[in-house]
From TrEMBL:
One of its GO terms (molecular function) is chromatin binding. Plays a role in the regulation of diverse cellular processes such as ribosome biogenesis, chromatin remodeling or protein chaperoning. Modulates the histone chaperone function and the RNA-binding activity of nucleolar phosphoprotein B23/NPM. Efficiently mediates chromatin remodeling when included in a pentamer containing NPM3 and NPM. The gene is Npm3. Residues 110-124 have a biased composition (Acidic residues). The keyword Phosphoprotein applies. InterPro entries: Nucleoplasmin, Nucleoplasmin_core_dom, Nucleoplasmin_core_dom_sf. This is Nucleoplasmin-3. Belongs to the nucleoplasmin family. One of its GO terms (biological process) is chromatin remodeling. Residues 3-102 form the Nucleoplasmin core domain. Keywords: Acetylation, Chaperone, Methylation, Nucleus, Phosphoprotein. GO terms for cellular component: cytoplasm; nucleolus; nucleoplasm. Residues 109-132 are annotated as: Disordered. The keyword Nucleus applies. It comes from Cnemophilus loriae.
Length: 132
């Protein structure tokens, strides 16, 4: 599933949530963050707000965009675990976020890895120093 949202001066945050009752694993991946039509030449800082291992809220800046020098940032499918909030911490946008959402049903997916013995692994040659 594709994800898209826009952060502006009037809509500073967007929260992506999944149903708590859902017995599936969800992966949210952020691909691109970019300024769109109407953006001013100012710093636009986008934060991801989530929870750490102690269930405390934590905000991490993922993009600092400016129309004149960096209007677009590719995040190469930066994976996040929902629920997650995207927040425009500075600037007035508009900033567009794009990515994808994958649902893996636990009964359909097998998380067991195949047993691979050391004999089956391909042996790599040792690294040799470069010849001068």
């Amino acid at each position: 599933l594709l994800l898209g949202c826009e952060l502006t001066a009037s809509t500073k945050s967007y929260t992506f949530q999944v149903d708590e009752e859902d017995d599936s694993d969800h992966i949210l991946a952020l691909s691109v963050v970019c300024l769109t039509d109407g953006a001013k030449d100012e710093c636009n800082v986008v934060e991801v707000v989530g929870r750490n291992h102690e269930n405390q809220e934590i905000a991490v800046p993922v993009a600092n965009l400016k129309l004149s020098c960096q209007p677009l940032l590719s995040l190469d499918n930066f994976k996040l675990q929902p629920p997650v909030t995207f927040r425009l911490a500075a600037g007035s946008g508009p900033v567009h976020l794009a990515g994808w959402h994958r649902i893996m049903h636990r009964e359909d997916a097998s998380f067991e890895e195949d047993d691979v013995s050391e004999e089956d692994e391909e042996e790599l040659p040792p690294i040799m120093p470069a010849k001068k």
